[in-house]
């Protein structure tokens, strides 16, 4: 699990929420993490001690039952826990879970999405691309999550990964919106900050790349000008040019990679003045081009 995922989950768990939001969280945890022991006792899988503690408190608040927290496993994905509902608690849990989903109000639907994310969600750090996933074992839960996300104006997508249905959202705008639905305002601000930094860095890189390309193009042109002037000097001689043009030709030969601005500074001219004189030199050199006859035999 990425640290960004943990930060979002901790913010969801630390918020002071309303009863409908808590109802949604518990329903989402049940749908995404439903388990059952061999004797039929229902349980809910959660991913950490804090999630287990808060889920137990919400169950006590809403169902007036004392769930039992059991550690299920400890491996590469970290410690995972089961919230067990033995005895009479099982009946109350199942009655609560059996309520039709379509009766949920907007706040409870937001809590439901937050609960699913707590049980089965992951958020990719912005530097790796904007992606939020809900990895769900039951296809009907994936369908319900997609229905609710669409109802909030989002565009979730779905794919199969081994035995899981993965519902995912891509793009900073969508993820920022769903973080708001979770009630994770700080996480949304962190995402917006990261997006701003990436945008500025991208703009700077584009400018640097464009400038580098322009410099490279200018250097190539300057070297080509020097070659043409050397060719003219070998055939016609620079003495055939006027004094001012001869100075420009010599300056280009002396500084083959200099920009027009730098060339102008050397000649005591503006950039426009250097451009005018050098253009005249090149025009004369081009006009004088002809096959070199070579020595007489």
Describe this entry's structure for a reader.
With 297 residues, this protein is of the alpha+beta class. It folds into two domains: 3-183, Endonuclease I-creI, CATH 3.10.28.10; 204-287, no CATH class. The chain is 60% helix and 15% strand. It has eleven helices and eight strands. The strands form two sheets. The protein has a four-stranded antiparallel beta sheet with strand order 1-2-4-3. It has a four-stranded antiparallel beta sheet with strand order 5-6-8-7. A hairpin with a 2-residue loop joins strand 3 (68-75) and strand 4 (78-84). The longest helix is centred in the last third of the chain and has 51 residues, at 185-235. The chain starts with a helix and ends in a 10-residue tail after the last helix. The model is unreliable at 292-297 (pLDDT under 50).
Task: Give the gist of this structure.
The chain has helices at 3-14, 19-33, 49-63, 88-97, 106-120, 139-151, 172-182, 185-235, 243-254, 260-267, 271-287; strands at 34-36, 42-46, 68-75, 78-84, 121-123, 131-136, 157-161, 164-170. The chain has 297 residues and is of the alpha+beta class.
At the fold tier of CATH, the topology name of the largest domain is Endonuclease I-creI
Largest sheet entry = 4 strands, antiparallel
Over all CA atoms, what is the radius of gyration? Answer: 35 Å
Oligomer: single chain
CATH superfamily of the largest domain: Homing endonucleases
Strand order across the biggest sheet?
Answer: 1-2-4-3
Shape: rod-shaped
Distance between the termini: 84 Å
Q: How many helical stretches?
A: 11
Q: What is the H/E string?
A: HHEEHEEHHEEHEEHHHHH
Q: How many distinct beta strands?
A: 8
Mean pLDDT: 82
Instruction: Give the percentage of residues in beta strands.
Output: 5-15%
Q: Which CATH architecture of the largest domain would you pick?
A: Roll
Q: Which spans have pLDDT < 50 for at least 5 consecutive residues?
A: 292-297
């Amino acid at each position: 699990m990425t640290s960004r995922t943990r930060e979002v989950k901790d913010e969801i768990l630390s918020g002071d929420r309303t009863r409908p939001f808590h109802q949604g969280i518990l329903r989402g945890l049940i749908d995404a993490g439903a388990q059952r022991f061999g004797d039929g006792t229902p349980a809910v899988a959660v991913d950490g001690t804090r999630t287990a503690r808060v889920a137990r408190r919400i169950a006590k608040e809403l169902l007036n039952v004392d769930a039992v927290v059991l550690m299920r496993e400890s491996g590469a994905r970290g410690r995972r826990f089961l919230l067990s509902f033995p005895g009479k608690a099982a009946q109350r849990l199942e009655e609560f879970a059996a309520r039709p989903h379509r009766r949920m109000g907007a706040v409870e639907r937001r809590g439901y999405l937050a609960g699913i994310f707590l049980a089965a969600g992951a958020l990719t750090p912005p530097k790796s691309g904007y992606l939020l996933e809900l990895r769900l074992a039951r296809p009907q839960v994936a369908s319900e999550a997609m229905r609710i996300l669409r109802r909030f104006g989002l565009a979730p997508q779905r794919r199969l990964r081994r035995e899981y249905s993965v519902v995912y959202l891509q793009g900073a705008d969508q993820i920022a919106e769903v973080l708001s639905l979770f009630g994770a305002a700080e996480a949304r601000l962190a995402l917006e900050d990261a997006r701003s930094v990436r945008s500025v860095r991208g703009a700077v890189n584009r400018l640097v790349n464009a400038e580098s390309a322009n410099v490279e193009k200018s250097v190539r042109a300057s070297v080509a000008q020097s070659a043409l002037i050397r060719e003219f000097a070998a055939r016609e001689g620079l003495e055939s040019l006027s004094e001012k043009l001869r100075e420009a030709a010599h300056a280009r030969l002396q500084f083959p990679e200099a920009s027009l601005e730098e060339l102008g500074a050397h000649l005591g001219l503006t950039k426009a003045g250097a451009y005018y004189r050098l253009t005249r030199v090149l025009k004369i050199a081009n006009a004088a081009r002809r096959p070199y006859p070579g020595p007489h035999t």
